[in-house]
């Protein structure tokens, strides 16, 4: 009597169960058995067979067998070129094999197959574009991303949020301020740093401001200003417990020699800046004096700052002179 052959579907289901429990070796074995049964006995559609190879690719990758994972991913694509999952598996494997250009091409091809209008695939579209953006930044080529700029605005909004959560500030800067390689009529990118109709309200500025404080590049200051102009919260501008957005912006100004963020806040809130104090009771001038006392090597250069305290206008100027000759001039005008 011939031996009984189990259904490939039942074997696949067992593989899915052990995969869910983290037993990747058992999952790989069951998927291999299911593939054998499906190919020998027949009865599996191209979608079902490609899913088997996709699942085994995933379990191979979890085991660290990246070459085998890539082979299964390519086999999945060969069986069903219209399913994005094979491209996703292949792209992830190529990344692990340190082949970013090949991974970028595969992710781009797969992204084109994802219809973000289908609610189930919305986050899949975002995931693909996140990978395309990250790899484009890594290799310094944005050609592939340019083919996907027609994605829906909510896709781009979620993409920006993902970049912010990952603290990919350099990438976020390029996305929102432009790189000079995109035409002005592009949906998202141009030379003028203007945003498309996307929401940035969910992007918390706290981490970006901390990054700004550690960088001398004023571009990140301009990024913070643009985010504020397009929905991000001013209250997220903070560097330490108890400071105000104004005090945090003042620290940024001292460390980067760029006062644009400070003046953006002052001009946007002329009444609030009067007598504003942090949790220690320090006004902006007190904060500046204490900062320079702690870090005398920090200079404002030849920057003139006009701060409002109550109804008096105070002009403060620090000159770029040797530390022993540094001086502060306070000019008072008011009633």
Automatic annotation (TrEMBL):
GO terms for molecular function: Hsp90 protein binding. Coiled coil: none annotated. Gene3D superfamilies: Tetratricopeptide repeat domain (1.25.40.10). InterPro entries: TPR-like_helical_dom_sf. SUPFAM superfamilies: TPR-like. The keyword Repeat applies. It comes from the Eukaryota. Keywords: Repeat, TPR repeat. This is TPR and ankyrin repeat-containing protein 1-like. It comes from Lingula anatina (Brachiopod).
